[in-house]
Amino acid sequence: MSSSTSNMFCSRCNEGFEEREKIVNSVIMYPTIRGGEVWHQSCFVCAQCFRPFSKDAIFYEFEGRKYCEHDFHVLFAPCCGHCHEFVIGRVIKALNNNWHPMCFRCELCQTPLADQGFFKNTGRALCHDCNAKERAAAIGKYICFKCHSIIDEGIPLKYKGEPYHPYHFNCKNCGVELNSDARTIKEELYCLRCHDKMGIPICGACHRPIEERIVTALGKNWHVEHFPFLGHRHYEKKGLAYCETHYHQLFGNLCYVCNQGDVFTALNKAWCVEHFQCSWCDTKLNQKSKFYDVDLKPCCKNCYAKFPTELKKRLKKQYTERTITTKKHIVLLVQI
């Protein structure tokens, strides 16, 4: 054994070195390791899997033991709660989990939270703005898009689809502080007084200015997309609008077959021209056609002629009795 190795002992097994034995020297190969440690080449291995470290190997040291990169991650490195990969370097600990800094984000808007803090809201990590919106929504309030505080009093001013405190804005024309009645014209805000002087019509549904095509009905102006009967027939009565079905249900008759309007009455029922027909041969009938009442069903002259004589006598008797009963009922109503 040479003098250069006689006083050297392996840092792992504490045994000496044979003459000319290859030594792993931390000063030469790993200058960042302090103390000038040396190892037998067979002793310079991972403390977990016992595989030798190569010359350029990356290893980690923990409590005096050295580990290969894989085993160190498995044994000691936390897993990210979002991507489930090992977290190397800075670890964010929150919500009983570990996170990469870039994986720890607001659950609603995805803003990174590692450097700005977060709020715990029903088990979720939220940024300041999203947490404020959630709290406001829970109590039926809005969050001002400018100052991010809850709009406690009054109605919010909607501008470009977002709610604001009205006092954040002034009229484009006169400069007065605005309220929720402000109107938007070409992305500029005006007080109600200045807007009315401009003569721009207001939609009867959304109460916003109409800058393009106008529908005029029921004594009001409407955005095309806000008029409920656009492209469909509607009826007006006492300032109110009705679809055809509901109008006839409330104020008129509907066809006994198709439930549509434009009808006439026969056999104590309402019929449209399309569906008033012989119940036996489907011949079309109208108000001028001769037809017979057969159990309150229309029957054309030809089909009725084919009925047996006894059946026609019975039908005639039923019709006479029904007519007499109806007349008595009318007389009774008049007397009452």
Shape type: elongated
Helix content: 10-25%
* CATH homology-level superfamily of the largest domain: Cysteine Rich Protein
Radius of gyration: 45 Å
| Number of structural domains | 4
What does this structure look like?
The termini are far apart. Mean pLDDT is 77; it is low at 27-34 and 326-336. The chain has helices at 3-6, 26-29, 69-76, 128-138, 192-197, 244-251, 301-305, 309-335, and strands at 23-25, 38-40, 59-62, 65-68, 92-94, 97-99, 119-121, 124-126, 142-143, 150-151, 157-159, 162-164, 183-185, 188-190, 214-217, 220-223, 234-237, 240-243, 264-266, 269-271, 291-294, 297-300. The chain has four domains: 3-74, Cysteine Rich Protein (Ribbon); 77-138, Cysteine Rich Protein; 201-252, Cysteine Rich Protein, CATH 2.10.110.10; 264-335, Cysteine Rich Protein. It has a two-stranded antiparallel sheet. A two-stranded antiparallel ribbon has the order 3-4. It has a two-stranded antiparallel ribbon with strand order 5-6. The protein has 336 residues and is an alpha+beta fold. It has eight helices and 22 strands. Helix content is 22%, strand content 21%. Keywords: LIM domain, Metal-binding, Repeat, Zinc. It comes from Oppiella nova. Residues 8-77, 78-137, 142-201, 241-310 form the LIM zinc-binding domain. One of its GO terms (biological process) is positive regulation of substrate adhesion-dependent cell spreading. This is LIM domain-containing protein.
